[in-house]
Amino acid sequence: TPLTSRIAHLVVIDVLAMGVAMARGPSLVNHLKSVKRSLRSLRLSPKSVKALDD
């Protein structure tokens, strides 16, 4: 079924992401924090998203 297929794909992506995270080690945490800080200014507020829907 489509739902089973989607869940299987998500599991594969999660396993790959964990493998990369474990291979990169602690430096990955600092890199991800840096990316999160960089993207913070691009976030949309709920009000602006609602305005786009109208």
Describe the protein in words:
The chain is mainly alpha-helical and 54 residues long. The protein has one domain (2-53). The chain has 3 helices and no strands. The protein has helices at residues 2-24, 27-39, 46-53. The longest helix is centred in the first third of the chain and has 23 residues, at 2-24. The model has no long low-confidence stretch (mean pLDDT 89).
Notable features of this structure?
54 residues; mainly alpha; 3 helices; flat
Low-confidence stretches: none
Biggest sheet character: none
Number of distinct beta strands: 0
Assign an overall shape. flat
Overview in brief:
The chain is mainly α and 54 residues long.
Sequence-ordered SSE layout with sheet pairings:
Blueprint lengths: L1 H23 L2 H13 L6 H8 L1
